[in-house]
Amino acid sequence: MIGRLNHVAIAVRDLAAATRIYRDTLGAEVSAPVPQPEHGVTVVFVNLPNTKIEFLEPLGENSPIRAFLDRNPDGAIHHLCYEVEDIHAARDKLVGQGARVLGGGEPKIGAHGKPVLFLHPKDFCGTLTELEQA
Amino acid sequence: MIGRLNHVAIAVRDLAAATRIYRDTLGAEVSAPVPQPEHGVTVVFVNLPNTKIEFLEPLGENSPIRAFLDRNPDGAIHHLCYEVEDIHAARDKLVGQGARVLGGGEPKIGAHGKPVLFLHPKDFCGTLTELEQA
């Protein structure tokens, strides 16, 4: 069912510092910051040859990553995102096997403009797992 | 400098359970377990179209991931591994920029039989970062 690893998301307090580390120290191609107020984050994309790293910085008072950063002040990997062909078919299969879909179970439009859903970390090896319709 | 994301490593207490989740629930291609006593882990590889997930289970009394799992009993992402062309050149550039290389700074032969080194998480956005010579 799952296909490509679409991205690894790393939450940080300071996107400019993360950009310096990945662009200047690690020599990667890093995008300009992209504010996504509807998701409560500003995002920077690190374009690797085979996948992306996405750095997330809190945006606004109700950012969904603020509490995570309070627990992980140095930053930390926040989630993995896998591509699926059909998000509703994936959801139905997962729910049928007892996996918990966060946020009511209906796919929402994610940060890339495609339908996504998030799976409960306790059901997936302690890892917050996003599925995105490719 | 960094190239492909070689793998995402997830530490778990129970490789068989992780295999069931990724093979049966997520429908991915999962290898048989590979004991690596010289690294203190048993590894299962999840082969995605563009990269790998590597599940690590402690092997032996002195496994380097045992304390990590004590802190993360559900499992958790342990590190990211990026490929580099020349591990010594990468090390020299990183040390020159003030980054800390773990374990004395000399590359060692890693789990894939290639030279690797690990970078201090506090210098890399709270993420334990492995470099592997491709």
UniProtKB/TrEMBL annotation, chains A, B:
It is an enzyme of class 5 (isomerase). Keywords: Cobalt, Isomerase, Metal-binding. PANTHER family: METHYLMALONYL-COA EPIMERASE, METHYLMALONYL-COA EPIMERASE, MITOCHONDRIAL. It catalyses: (R)-methylmalonyl-CoA = (S)-methylmalonyl-CoA. Gene3D superfamilies: 2,3-Dihydroxybiphenyl 1,2-Dioxygenase, domain 1. It comes from the Bacteria. It holds the Pfam family Glyoxalase_4. It comes from Enterovirga aerilata. One of its GO terms (molecular function) is methylmalonyl-CoA epimerase activity. Residues 4-134 form the VOC domain. Belongs to the methylmalonyl-CoA epimerase family. InterPro entries: Glyas_Bleomycin-R_OHBP_Dase (IPR029068), MeMalonyl-CoA_epimerase (IPR017515), MMCE/EMCE_epimerase (IPR051785), VOC_core (IPR037523). This is methylmalonyl-CoA epimerase.
